[in-house]
Amino acid sequence: MSTPLERPHVWLPGSPGHPPLLLLHGTGGDEHDLLPLREQLAPQAPVLSVRGTVLENGMPRFFRRLCEGVFDEDDLRHQVEELATFLRAAEQHYDVAPGAWTAVGFSNGANIASALLFGRPDSLAGAIVLAAMVPYRDGPPHADLIGRNVLISNGRRDPMATAEHTSTLAEQFRTAGAEVTLLPHDGGHTLDPRLLPRMADWLARTRP
């Protein structure tokens, strides 16, 4: 890439005064997958939806993994820096206040959102992470997340983002100072659309 903004993405302008959303898809998705969430979560919000640039068997991801459930943490750290650089360029190009984004990520997108909060906390105001695992096996980088809000929505029957992942991730965010809300559902590795109104309420209450 010759410039950061050549990374595939979709930008949807919003109404003045509405904090922007950063949409981050799951494995095999792209920058169009999560766009319908805008209408459900914050119809007037500006939206930046980004494609992961790592390919796994032809499927876009935001960082490599060594095998199922085992992340390449060196690549994860590298991709956090790449995404943070892209966001800085997007803020300048689209006239967005630095660090104003609330990330909404699913699965692999949720994991890069968590890693971005820990690794580059000034990049995000908060996050909604869906089907989220623990990005760093031995603990995340030290981060000051006071003033950040995080909502975790995992399925009780999720074989990948297990109850242990959920509790560990929540504790890591709380230890860093974030305000954490848990919104579980009874499904598996998916998003429960019945929870979207509650996520929208949370977003309206916690937005900067």
TrEMBL record:
Q: Name one Pfam family in it.
A: Abhydrolase_2
Domain (Phospholipase/carboxylesterase/thioesterase) spans: 10-204
Name used for this protein in its record: Phospholipase/carboxylesterase
Q: What is the lineage of its organism?
A: Bacteria, Bacillati, Actinomycetota, Actinomycetes, Pseudonocardiales
